[in-house]
Write a structure and sequence with these properties.
- The protein is α+β, with helices and mostly antiparallel strands.
- Strand 3 and strand 4 form a beta hairpin.
- It is globular, with a radius of gyration of 16 Å.
- It has 4 helices and 9 strands.
- The protein is 27% helix and 29% strand.
- Strands 1, 2, 3, 4, 5, 6, 7, 8 and 9 form a 9-stranded mixed beta sheet that branches.
Length: 188
């Protein structure tokens, strides 16, 4: 059971549908129809194939006996410390989920470990993301941070771009300043 790490351009229509189906199973309340989400995913795949858009995005997926059981996404994101204007690139971790009937088997951990390997593989300093399950990530060497986060590109830039309760970095010992942070885009 190896975790596959694929670029957006590597995904077929059936790959995109498989990912969307799992995300729908885990987060059924997410907006839009499956058809709309598939069309959006195919636009992103086409743009990546044409070398437009975010070429840093990777899908980390794990199949067991031919079934997708766990997945997450990573991509590079440039953030800014508001007090100094210093920009830094972080690895964003998003859309982490395991098929509900497969939880507790370590599959989610395996895809996240592969995602974190991108830090060393690509010389990225740290990963920044949000979560509703901080204990899962603490066990993997992460820590929560208490910065004020904003999004200068939003209609209401001072509103937090996160919807989960905790912001997290990996690794825990990474160089991180407790200062206001502009995500410079929507939460993920």
């Amino acid at each position: 059971m190896l975790v596959e790490r694929l670029g957006r351009a590597d995904l077929s229509r059936s790959d995109n549908l498989e990912l969307i189906s799992l995300w729908e199973e885990v987060w059924p309340q997410a907006g839009g129809s499956v058809e709309e989400k598939l069309a959006d995913a195919e636009r992103k795949t086409e743009a990546a194939a044409e070398q437009k858009g975010d070429l840093s995005e990777r899908i980390h997926r794990l199949h067991v006996e031919g079934r997708l059981v766990a997945v997450c996404r990573t991509f590079l994101r440039e953030i800014q410390y508001v007090d100094t204007g210093e920009n830094t690139s972080v690895l964003a971790l998003a859309s982490v989920c395991t098929k509900p009937v497969e939880r507790g088997n370590g599959f989610g951990r395996r895809v996240v470990e592969d995602a974190f390997r991108r830090l060393e593989d690509e010389g990225i300093g740290l990963s920044l993301f949000q979560t509703g399950v901080p204990d899962f990530y603490r066990k993997m060497g992460c820590r929560t941070v208490s910065n004020r986060f904003l999004n200068s590109f939003a209609d209401n830039p001072e509103a937090t771009p996160w919807w989960d309760d905790w912001a997290v970095i990996y690794p825990a010992e990474a160089n991180w300043r407790e200062a206001p942070v502009d995500l410079r885009g929507a939460g993920y």
